[in-house]
């Protein structure tokens, strides 16, 4: 199934995005380190956010099967940019669990990283680091 995303340049380095099915909208802006004002998520910020959101969603399904309350668990993602060629160089992610879980479940959570469609879609030159803390 395809999902349509509409993008419209609205001036001052900003782009309005609209999710076709829901009509939900967000605006992106250029980051300060690339000549923008950094007022909103940048396009590459959305890449990092997509990875975090996808992985948390998959982990929540694993937690549900294991009867673990996953609410409140977070991923803090730091995005590092390479200047030449300009691209995301590294994503460093710290998963913070709100609850204590056994080691085998932590391993299942880490395995979710590899099954994430966003992770699978990223260029192999992007270094991705994950750590779980509870």
Describe this structure in words.
- It contains three helices and six strands, in the order E-E-E-H-E-E-H-H-E.
- It is of the alpha+beta class.
- A three-stranded antiparallel β-sheet has the order 1-2-3, with no helix packed on it.
- The chain has helices spanning 43-65, 103-115, 117-121; strands at residues 5-11, 14-19, 25-29, 74-83, 86-96, 127-133.
- The termini are far apart.
- The model has no long low-confidence stretch (mean pLDDT 94).
- The protein has two domains: 5-34; 43-133, GMP Synthetase, Chain A, domain 3.
- Helix 1 (43-65) packs across helix 2.
- The longest helix has 23 residues, at 43-65.
- 31% of the residues lie in helices and 34% in strands.
- Strand 4 (74-83) and strand 5 form a beta hairpin.
């Amino acid at each position: 199934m395809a999902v349509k995303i509409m993008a419209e340049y609205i001036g001052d380095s900003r782009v309005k995005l609209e999710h076709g099915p829901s009509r939900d909208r967000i605006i992106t802006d250029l980051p300060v380190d690339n000549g923008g004002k950094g007022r909103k998520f940048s396009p590459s910020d959305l890449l990092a956010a997509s990875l975090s959101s996808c992985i948390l969603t998959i982990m929540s399904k694993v937690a549900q099967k294991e009867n673990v309350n996953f609410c409140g668990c977070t991923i803090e993602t730091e995005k590092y940019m390479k200047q030449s060629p300009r691209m995301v160089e590294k994503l460093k992610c710290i998963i913070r669990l709100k609850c204590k879980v056994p080691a085998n479940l932590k391993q299942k959570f880490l395995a979710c990283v590899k099954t994430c469609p966003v992770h699978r879609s990223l260029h192999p030159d992007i270094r991705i680091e994950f750590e779980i803390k509870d």
